[in-house]
Amino acid sequence: MIDLLAFMTIILWPVIPLFWIPLHLFTGFFRNLGKFTYLMPLITWLPLAFLLYQNRNILLQYKVELPLTVNIAGAVLLLIGTLIHLWTAKLLGIWGLIGLPQVYTRTEGRLVSGGAFSVVRHPTYLAHTMMFAGIFMITGVITIGVITVIDLVVVLLLIIPIEEKELTDRFGEGYRLYISRVPAIRPSFSQLFGSGLIVPGTIEIFALDHTTHLPELLEDLQRETHEKMENPQMLTGRVEGRLLQMLVRISGAKRVVEIGTFTGFSALMMADGLPDDGELITCEISPEFAEFAQRYFDRSRHMDKLRLRIGPAINALRGMPNRSADFVFIDADKTSYINYYEEGMRILKSGGLMTVDNVLWSGRVLNPRDEDSRAIAEFDRMVMEDTRAEKVMLTVRDGLYLIRKKEQADA
């Protein structure tokens, strides 16, 4: 019975790489074949299966004796891997599991981010690895151990990178957000139980899917930021960006001041909410970020509204007249938030709006232990006690403080 389990694993394993690797490397060709694609693994696998059967004694000959505790642990691992596989199949449906969206153009598929997919991005491959490892621990057959290692290497170095590119091309920002929240193949249960997140990732993706899409320029900016920047999570993102744009538009702001440009996404979003004679001044201390942002500013139809100032933002703010801005957005170094806020209130007109990003700091404001967390917690307390302002804290992204300067604040 043990040898039968081992041999069935050896003979069936090649079906996976023989199907998935050609399918993802030559997707266009197999799209033309449509459902006939599923004949391909049979044609390529049958001769190999016959060869493996002919050499079954050699393949099963070399074994290691493993303790009973290891055998039991292997059985548990095999059971868990099987359950994950069944869970994945239920979430994807049979057509999604066997890759129909890749080969049949009328079934484009959808981004599944709940259930097993909230723990790991590729639960099917995790399940394979667990099942192969479990069978090796049960049987001790060296060939199974080798298959386990080869399968994991092929998945990590070839299959997952190809699939990630396909999924990013298909789902865009939604998949990039998903990548930032969920690991590829090492399980993380923070999403499943909601710990460490302001809003569960599945809800964030749902909100993203129900928010107006971005123009091509901003899609390009997002893509290049993720490809070239070390900390792409600093990008404001579509949901918060559209919120900022809407706030600027409905408030009737004509002059916006932004503290912290990064790659220019939020500046471009807010500029779109300004009237034709509006102006947006954005401050960035990093020449690298500023150069990146300026390239996209120059490509934008709003380029005449945008003014990029390179250097310490506090210096730029101190050079601005009192009550000269209608809208202020702060998203820069956290230890300087209080200074930025005070200068922002000074330059803000009565009735003007201020928005401040990252005010929940991934929940660390509840128990601040590092310098940035303590700075954010102190800033939040200070704003709450400021009688010059009306305020509401939103659980958008990493927390967004929406602040309105009262009319009598300048009296």
Question: Any overview of this molecule?
Answer:
The chain has 19 helices and seven strands. With 411 residues, it is α/β, with parallel strands linked by helices. It has two domains: 189 residues, Four Helix Bundle (Hemerythrin (Met), subunit A), CATH 1.20.120; 195 residues, Rossmann fold (3-Layer(aba) Sandwich). The protein has a seven-stranded mixed sheet, sandwiched between helices.
* Relative helix content: 55-70%
Q: Give me the side-by-side strand order of the main sheet.
A: 3-2-1-4-5-7-6
Q: How does CATH name the architecture of the largest domain? A: 3-Layer(aba) Sandwich
State the oligomer: single chain
Write the layout of secondary structure elements.
Layout: H1 2-12, H2 15-25, H3 27-33, H4 40-54, H5 56-61, H6 68-97, H7 100-103, H8 123-139, H9 142-171, H10 173-181, H11 190-193, H12 201-209, H13 216-228, H14 238-251, E1 255-259, H15 265-273, E2 279-284, H16 287-299, E3 306-310, H17 313-318, E4 325-330, H18 337-347, E5 348-357, H19 371-385, E6 389-394, E7 400-405
Parallel strand pairs: 1-2, 1-4, 2-3, 4-5
Antiparallel strand pairs: 5-7, 6-7
Helix pairs in contact: 1-8, 2-4, 2-9, 6-8, 8-9, 9-10, 10-12, 14-15
